[in-house]
Design goal:
Layout (H helix, E strand, L loop, with lengths): L40 E3 L14 H13 L1 H14 L1 H27 L4 H7 L2 H19 L5 H14 L3 H12 L1 H32 L7 H6 L23 H5 L2 H18 L3 H6 L1 H8 L2 H10 L7 E3 L7 H4 L18 E3 L4 H23 L3 E9 L3 E8 L10 E6 L8 E4 L9 E6 L3 H9 L10 E7 L11 E7 L4 H12 L9 E8 L9 H10 L7 E7 L1 E3 H9 L16 E2 L4 H10 L8 E8 L2 H17 L6 E7 L3
Parallel strand pairs: 10-11, 10-15, 11-12, 12-14, 15-16
Antiparallel strand pairs: 1-13, 2-3, 4-5, 5-8, 6-7, 6-9
Length: about 650
Amino acid sequence: MLSTHCPADKRQHSRNVFMIKNTSKKNNSQKRVKLEPEATTVNVNEKLLPSDPSMPSLESQSIENHQSRMSFQSIRLWLRLFIVNDLTTILVLFIWLLINIALFLGQFFNYHQSRSYFYLRVLISDGLGIARASALCLNFNCFLILLPVCRNLLSLIRYILPRCITQSVFRRLAIRLFDQHIGFHRCVGYAICFWSLLHVGAHVYNYERLIDVHNDYQSLSSVLNLLYLKSSESQVNPFDRVNPNGLSVGAMLSTTPGVTGVILCVCLLVILSSSTVLIRRSFYEIFWFVHHLFIIFFICLIIHGLQGLVKSQTNLNEHNPDICASIYREWGINQQCLIYPRFSGSQATSWMWLCAPLSLYTLERILRFLRSLQHIEILNIIRHESNVIEIRFRKKFMSIPQPGQYIYLKCFSIAKFEWHPFTVTSAPEEEFVSVHIRTIGNWTKSLAENLQMYPQDIPRLAVDGPYGSPADDVFNYDGVVLVGAGIGVTPYAAILKHIRSSQSSHARLRRVYFYWICNTTSCYEWFAEMLQELERDLRDRRNFLTYNIYLTQWSMGQMRAVIQNNTDDRDIWTGLESKTHYGRPNFDVDFQGIINEDWQMAEKRDIGVFVCGPTPLVKQLQRLCIKINDQHSSTNKVQFYLNKENF
């Protein structure tokens, strides 16, 4: 039995399961109290229970947190948190970073020492090496940027890879790695911005040097600048006819690299500025449409180097720059330098880097398009409180979603090209697929408006998926802690339904600890039927399911109702045997209770902690998992593994 904030709750029955409440039939013995929220509300951040030692004041808590942050133990905990929870991601990022550095240094020294570019280095020095090295790294990262967003490719790898890995530890690491695909996509995007900035800066320097050569006299650079008078094949400076006294911007914009470079910078700047958290959450449509400027970006990148302005010497056997550079005044006279140097433009290589990812991404989009053409049969639309709608549908030729997976949904009457992810809340055993959607954004509000006329007027929907999530690994642990905040409970609804429907299919899973943290009582109505069925079907599995429902904000009227009905056998909000807890969970005490429970297991217990909620909640559980794992590392009794949902 998990510990809670209320001492009276500790005296409840050790089997903490739900009481059945049939919503389709009237039952006077199972009544729920529903109150309209009043103007005056109480938040758990206030000093609600001064006599309760588990609810410290804000002042003492602030001092304690400050001291903890300054301690060495806090620093060590942060390091362990960073290493253990993100070990695979760190290794991949480290290898990726090493590859970037190796490519840059290798390409730089190649151009720094190459005899073919000796005379070009005379004009622009090491600006050549920096520009070409950053261009190589830019191509490498553009090769990677599309791969993390190929959802079907990742799903295929995610399906195959764990089945090829027998060790559970390595399987978890592999799954966790693919859970971070969007984060890796962002890192590669930042790298593209960095290498682009370095590349542009180097070429601005090179351009200025090539213009300043016109002011040199009686030097090797001045001779190289006038080689075009001998032959077009001897031209090494692409701007040898530019007036050095003018602004000379037109000369740059008259070239293919100049025009495409400006377009590339504009596209990159617009994409980057529209990718901020504020834009993504508040104006998702802007983020989605602007991101498709990558098509123009890649087209310009492919043709960026086709003109071949960077030239290398082609007749090294006839004209040795190591010898002839020092006797440039005797070119055409000295027996060793009778022939002038000849140059040719370098071959463009960006297309070779982009062919494979563009092909894969094109196949990805074709597959999504074909899926969008498949008919979706909407079976029911259910409107819940707190601005939540439930869509139940059926689709042919769609693989059965597994617990915790998500799908992408598109409504043609809103936008023909926008897909939005939603977690599947139905179990594989059900005859339909369902999603719960909270209407908080422009797109979700428009969807709710389009569904108002159901069933008379049914909008056309398209579904893509399902795709894997961290919850795929939920049945590979001895016990799981499922923590959902508000609508974040949706991934675990399907898991709990699946557990109810297939009680003998997952022999390893022995305990399930379910936490649902809500800020309003209307949220409980979302999955009332599911919670009732859980109690009915899991009644005989003693100690298998332990649940804790928390209310973090309530009105004064609701508080009076709690006091008046506190002696009832069932909770006034949920109609369940266990009472709703008021405040926030004390995970430190609860996790210690999990450790102290007798599981009748001799080997180490692996506990999976799955959380879908705000960042502070995720960080709190991260720190707690690391702290507990450190304390019990010597006994090797229990190990907590954190898994967080990412959209």
